[in-house]
Amino acid sequence: MKYTMKVEIPAGSITRYSFDEKGRLKVKHFQSMPVSYPANYGYIDETLADDGAASDVLVITREPLLPATYIDIKVIGYIDMTDGGEKDEKFIAVPIEDVDPTYADINSIFDLPKAELDRIYAFYSIYKQLPAGRKEVQLDGYQDEKAAYALLDKAQARFAKSVA
């Protein structure tokens, strides 16, 4: 299933960018932990997650993407995450085959190399440890593409209801 993602943070960056209410790309903060984003980070268009924001997504690509660009993606699963006591799943995706055929055979998060999954998990395990006092993050493993599609169906319905 194809979704469209808007990139906020390129893979390898320590800068947390986000779009403000006027659509401007702004620096939110610099990563205090000595870790960089393991993949391009952004959100899936026309979704609304439980936390009231668009659904977060990481897309794995062969090179970093520029902030404010869009890419068509195939969601392959998600990391089950709670941030400050609220559910905050991070969907994992790859480019659709028309964008990059390299990932054509990756259909589930469990098709990725274990080292790739370990890097993503390690990043989210520690990225908010500094500065002290930030929200606590709890990770509860990975879920497959079927579970991801079910959550995204709900997020799309929530979005549609919000704009109706």
Automatic annotation (TrEMBL):
Species, as recorded: Photobacterium pectinilyticum
Pfam families from the UniProt entry: Pyrophosphatase
EC identifiers of the protein: 3.6.1.1
Keywords from the UniProt entry: Hydrolase, Magnesium, Metal-binding
Cofactor(s) needed by this chain: Mg(2+)
SUPFAM superfamilies assigned to the protein according to its UniProt record, in alphabetical order: Inorganic pyrophosphatase
Protein name: inorganic diphosphatase
